Amino acid sequence: MKKHNFFAGPAELDETVIKNTADNIIDFAGTGISIMAISHRSKEFIAVMEKAVNLTKELLDVPSTHEVIFLQGGASLQFAMLPMNLLDKKAAYVDSGTWASNAIKEAKLFGEVVVVGSSKDKNYNYIPVGWEKNIPSDASYLHYTSNNTIFGTQFKKDPDVNVLLASDMSSDIFWRPVDVSKYAIIYAGAQKNIGPSGITLAIVRKDLLDKINRPVPTMLKYSTHVDKESMYNTPPTVATYACVQSLERFKNLGGVKALGKIADQRANSIYDEIDRNKLFVSTVPDASHRSNMNITFVMNEQYKDLEKDFTDFAKSRNIVGITGHRSVGGFRASVYLSQRDDSVNALIQAMKDFEKK
Amino acid sequence: MKKHNFFAGPAELDETVIKNTADNIIDFAGTGISIMAISHRSKEFIAVMEKAVNLTKELLDVPSTHEVIFLQGGASLQFAMLPMNLLDKKAAYVDSGTWASNAIKEAKLFGEVVVVGSSKDKNYNYIPVGWEKNIPSDASYLHYTSNNTIFGTQFKKDPDVNVLLASDMSSDIFWRPVDVSKYAIIYAGAQKNIGPSGITLAIVRKDLLDKINRPVPTMLKYSTHVDKESMYNTPPTVATYACVQSLERFKNLGGVKALGKIADQRANSIYDEIDRNKLFVSTVPDASHRSNMNITFVMNEQYKDLEKDFTDFAKSRNIVGITGHRSVGGFRASVYLSQRDDSVNALIQAMKDFEKK
Q1: Across A23-46, average pLDDT
Q2: In degrees, to the nearest 5, what angle opens at C-alpha A246 toward C-alphas A242 and A250?
Q3: Which terminal residue of chain B has fewer beta carbons within 10 Å of its beta carbon, N or C?
Q4: Which residue of chain B has the CA closest to A108?
């Protein structure tokens, strides 16, 4: 029985992406060999990697000053790789949640970290604002987490600052057009919007690489992966293949602007129900800070004891993965770019029907 | 049309491993969700990771002093992670090929590297011997590459030394019983014997961790992954699942000793044909140094011009992936633990038939 999947990541993927990947696990591109078992140096796989790079460039309008690379280790490894490669003496960070704070922790191993803004005072239930003036002019970059998966908040546009930007876009990459020229780096674990876990997308500005005087292991240098076109060592072939399926679908749906519009409609329909329904309340008071990827909500104070009942009620309707992260509690509905409309409708209907009950 | 797959990695996997993975890409363990799209914190996936760890412990008889962890980034990232975590002042390395030499390069970033033995003088066509006496007593470990994928040579047993061992066993893990108690670490990219690319197995001795005075990023500390049972961040769920399918199969086939025996028979039948056939010659003169995983051979001098013809002849019989690495030339037949007998027989028959022609 197919479930309505609201997990925060790995998260739902489109059925065509799932089916194509399963088919190519059996026979990859008519080669008579599984995508799990074919050499990454075969011309058929090289074509897959090229597509992954080129589709990303096309969808995000990546300028020629930047390169798209595919890495392993998730955003968590990028928390260290970024400062290792690009932090000279000092960098500025916005602390908007758990992942932002983990990125800060790793950066401190490589230089001075100036936390220019934070929403920690209110358990990260808003996006810090007005911190732009706090950025030191000699900061190598300003790092922000574009979408806070755990706390359900989201930057709606590129921050306007006087240094280069660096961003963890793991949970909302491809949701909005990004002015890549303003960025030293954008990185994103694939397992929320694009593919399975085990592959990380990065877009790096080429002229910044190999400029810092610090010994960096070969595998941890961005320049290694730029020079070798993401094939310095064996890339995760299955995950790369699955990502390409999503990226092709994104292109066919009309690109980033069209994708964002669809995602916004889905998110708004759930937020509307949360605001209307007397049982539920959003955990993010300022609606303009709410994430359109991860919708976090709790039971209204007087209905707190119904939390488990609603989870069970949802489960009885095949809705899974809506338990909120332990740092927030309540519920979280993750509605990334491959979420299904019928799942969103099923959740809204369950909220309505549970209220009547 | 199913091919006879002799690629060096990613390499052939058993058809049950391929079929189970494809099926679970559609519906993972009856959850109604793809293994690509389910949370790694779901109880169903946690069970997969536990199986991966426990089957490895069982197959390699891992003592309680050691822990099994699953990482990303391939052996190439381990070349740096190992010295970053375990090299105090000095380490000893055996240079038996390209990968060994890459490991040496990374270790030099973290301390003094003593190359105790090398076979570089003869393009790595043998396993260095008699170097044990060159190991400094204060070396943190002695590193060796158990099987040299490119040059077709293999250590047949654990070296007998007075310091802890460290080994890249990417291309022959599970081929022979290993005395894990002698090792500081064993690591192996999965994409040759166990699963698809994008997952790396490591077995680390726990009491050595976090002892070196050097700042190490969280993701690059072995202790992080030991403490969090390989779930510090999102592991590659599909690759983990596929590995478990191979490991269960290995167990059902009778474990490491039985596997090694089957592999040896396969390798010997090809070596016998190379030695018998007037057209071909092994690139490794000393038979006791020959790899039972990667069989490298070239055309005999007087038949050199037939190289392309044999490749085409093999291809006409659906035999693919036998082109040798550019540093050796000629041919390489990779016959890892999941190689098929019918593929081995097809190759031998092609060699015989081409000789007649």
Answers
A1: 97
A2: 165
A3: N
A4: B217
Best mutation target, A79, A197, A338, to test chain B (most B CBs within 10 A): A197
CB contact under 8 Å between A18 and B8, yes or no, is: no
Q: Give residue-wise pLDDT tens across range B299-350.
A: 999 999 999 999 999 999 999 999 999 999 999 999 999 999 999 999 999 9
Query: Cβ of B235 and A39 within 8 Å?
Result: no
A181-225 confidence digits (pLDDT tens): 999 999 999 999 999 999 999 999 999 999 999 999 999 999 999
**Cβ-defined contacts of A131-134 (< 8 Å, 24+):** A131/A94, A132/A159, A132/A160, A132/A161, A132/A162, A134/A92
Tokens describing residue B84: 């970053």
A80 and B220 within 8 Å at the Cβ level: the answer is yes
Q: Sign (positive/negative) of CA torsion B25, B26, B32, B33? A: positive
Pair B68, B202: CB distance under 8 Å? yes
DSSP A88-144: SSEEEEEE-SHHHHHHHHHHTTTSEEEEEEE-GGGTT-S---S-GGGS-TT-S-EEE
Q: Is A27 labeled as catalytic in the residue annotation?
A: no
Q: Inter-chain contact B34–A23, Cβ cutoff 8 Å?
A: no
Cα–Cα distance measured from residue B297 to residue B152, given in angstroms and rounded to the nearest whole number: 9
Query: What single string gives the DSSP state of each residue in B120-176?
Result: GGGTT-S---S-GGGS-TT-S-EEEESEETTTTEE--S----SS-EEEE-TTTTTSS
Q: Give per-residue pLDDT as tens, B10-19.
A: 999 999 999 9
Chain A residue with minimal CA distance to B338? A37
User: Rounded CA gap, B258 and B281, in Å?
Assistant: 29
Q: How far is A327 from chain B (nearest CA, A)?
A: 15
Best probe of the B interface among A2, A27, A39, A240, by most B CBs < 10 A, is A39
Which is the catalytic residue, given B90, B131, B172, B192? B192
Looking up tokens 């030695």 gives B275
Can you give the pLDDT at residue B1? Answer: 73
What mean pLDDT do residues B267-292 have? 98
Instruction: Give the pLDDT mean for A132-138.
Output: 97
Per the structure block, which two tokens stand in for A277?
């329904």
* Percent of chain B scoring above 70 in pLDDT: 100
pLDDT tops 80 at residue A5: yes
- Specify whether B160 is catalytic: no
Q: In chain A, what residues touch B38 (CB-CB under 8 Å)?
A: 5, 7, 10
What chain B residue is nearest to A232 in terms of C-alpha separation? B76
Which value does ipTM take for this structure? 0.97
B168 is an active site residue: yes
User: Which element (helix H / strand E) includes B295?
Assistant: strand B294-299
The answer to whether A96 and A124 have CB atoms below 8 angstroms apart is: yes
